[in-house]
Structures are given as structure tokens and as C-alpha cells.
Amino acid sequence: MTLHVAWHRGVKALDRLENDYVRLLSDSCGTTIFNEWPWIRSAAKFLVPTGREVRTITIADGGGLLACLPMTIGRESIAGLPVRTLRPLGYPLSDRIGLPVRQGRTDVRSALLDALVDPRRSEADVAILSEVPAEAGFRNPMGGAEWRAPHVRLCSRAPVLDVSDPHKVQASLSKALRTRISRSRKKVAATGQTGFARIIPLPSEVPDLLRTIAAIEHVSWKGKAGVGIFSASERYAFFQEVSLALAASRRLEILLYAIGDRVVSYRYGFRVGRTFLDYNFAHPVELDDLSVGRVLLAEAIQTASASGIDTFDASRGSLQKPNILTDWTSDAIEHHEVWLFARSLWGELLRLAITKAKPFAKRVMKRKEAA
After folding, report:
1. Nearest of 253, 257, 258, 263 to residue 304 by alpha carbon
2. Would you list the DSSP string of 189-208?
């Protein structure tokens, strides 16, 4: 049966796809909470920067929708070059995304990737898929000419810890980590009475909880640097809408740690089955010496199994500044960033600039610095 590839412009066109998209996700492998409709629709409402437009690609046949990837398109500067890019809707706040393609349809997956590099239809110079899990298979070339192969680089490592057996977790801790946790707990306890809370809120409880954790982030290093998830009004509105939707399905979870009457640290995340996706956390800069973030994580891990959690997943992890969960485990899910260059002269020049010229320039600079 012939595959029908189509591009849809704007948010209204995306809305018309809602029911088919939701059905497609139920029959897709590898998609995550960051592909789901509450996240995607809220991103379309709050996270599309000025100068970019929602653009959704679909593939269908007589049996219905086979693939659907909501994206944004717009111009940005890459390596000093003006480039028209496609990025997944929700970038850069989506932690781990999959390709919504009907299970078992490798032909559809290939057609989707081919469509993304067709500049006549996509109108883009490159499609950049960030935070794609390693098992998605992009290390294997798409086939065809060498210049059509995707450029793939490791962009993050998300540590993952099995917490189904608390005794096993405790026994696996290094002596150094046990010592750090013990010392941190003593230092925190010396400042006042402490308390830990694990909350799966109702929608009515979400606004107050978000105000509480946003206030903590505001006085954390993330808030002071302006890079927190609540730093901009659009981001706050986005997370409020997402949180309300996920709270309605009992999948929002917030962990709090308090000293006396003051909440001093939080972990904001999502329950996916028996996995906790540890999306965001913060504590006031003034309490760095107390390591309240480490104490909260230790409490969260120790009580996870009793609360119905088998896996603690960092959701994302910086390569430059590894997630604190790496103190507990060396297991991780690697995320790749996949660059799909357009089949055009400009797409080929851009590929050469990114994959050849830019790495060469970095090597030259390193040699100069070493000399």
C-alpha cells in the first residue's frame, strides 16, 4: 500500500491530529512521556520561540496514521552560518524522545527519515533530533550516498539505578559515598528538625507546590544563572499546564526536604509505570555546604521501593557536569543528537562545515593552546 507523506503547518493543524496521534503512541515502541500529547500540546502553546513555526510531519496509508513527528521550523545560527532548522516540538526541555512510528514498520521509519532530508517538502537545511536514546539505532547509516548518512554525536548520559531492593542498593554504595551521606545528614540535622515528603499531588494541589519549588529554584544556581525551568514566565506556564495534566493521571511526583518549617530542596519528576523520571531538582545556593540535595536524593532512593518504584532514572545527564545520581550507579542510558542534512548543495556544505571544518578548527585551536 502506498505511503502518504504530508507536512502540516501551525498549531491548528496539529490539534486536528490529536486523536490519531494518541492512538499512534499506544502502538509505538520507544516513545516517552516527552512524546505524549500533554507535553506536545503545552509546548506548542508556550515554547515556540519567536521566528519559529509548528510544523508536523505525518505518514499514513489506508489503515490510518503510521508516523507523526511534531516539530518547529525556523532560522538559527550554527557554526556562524544562517541555517533553517527543524527541531522536535518541546526542544530543549524534552529529555528523552522517541520516533512515533507504528510498531514493526521499519519501512515507515525509513520513509520518515527520507522525508526529513527532502528540502522540497521539509523546507529545512537540517533536522536536528536531540536526546534520542542510543537504542534508536541512528549509528547505522540510512543508506545511499555517504553524504546522506546522519551525523550522530553523544549529547548526554542519563544514569539509571535499580532501587527494587533497598538492601542491595545500600550494600552497593562505596565507602566514600556512605561517608559523605552520613556527614551530610549530621550537618543538616544539627541545623534543626528535618522532614522528607513524597507527594503525588492532585491537580488542585499543583499550583501551591509549583510556587514552592519555583521559589527554591529562584535562589539556586540555576535561578541565579537564569537557566532554571521556572526562570521565564513561558516556561512556568508550560510546566504548570503539564503538571496539571500529569497530576490528573497521577503521574506527577514531587519530593521535598525541609529543615524546620522551610522547604530547602526538591526533586520534580514523573512516574512512568514503576520508574521515577527525576526531571529537575534544586536547593538554595546558601545551603551548598550542607549538601541538602544529596540528602534528599538518599532519602528518595531509600524509600523508593516502598512507594512502588523499581527504577530511579535521571532522565538526562550532562556530559560536562554529570548528574549526582552517578555517585550511586555507573549504569546509564546514552542519548544521541542526530543531524539529518538536507539533500541539497547547501545541506552538503553544512554537513561538511559541521562534521569536518568545525572539528578541524577545534583541533587546531587545541594545538595552539598546547604550544
Report:
1. 253
2. HTTS-EEEEEE---GGGHHH
Of 75, 135, 125, residue with least CA distance to 99: 135
Which of these ranges, 17-21, 39-43, 139-143, has the smallest mean pLDDT? 139-143
* 71-95 pLDDT, tens digit each: 999 999 988 889 999 999 999 999 9
What CATH topology corresponds to 4-157+334-370?
A: Aminopeptidase (3.40.630)
Contact 314, 335 (CB under 8 A): no
Rg of the chain (C-alpha set): 22
CA 273 to chain centre: 18
Q: What is the pLDDT of residues 26-71, one digit of tens each?
A: 999 889 999 999 999 999 999 999 999 999 999 999 889 999 999 9
Q: pTM for this one?
A: 0.92
Architecture of the domain defined by 164-309: 3-Layer(aba) Sandwich (3.40)
The residues spanned by each domain of the chain are 4-157+334-370, 164-309
Q: What angle do CA 307, 308, 311 make, to 5 degrees?
A: 110
Q: For residue 333, what is the enclosing H or E element?
A: strand 332-341
146's grid cell: 555517504
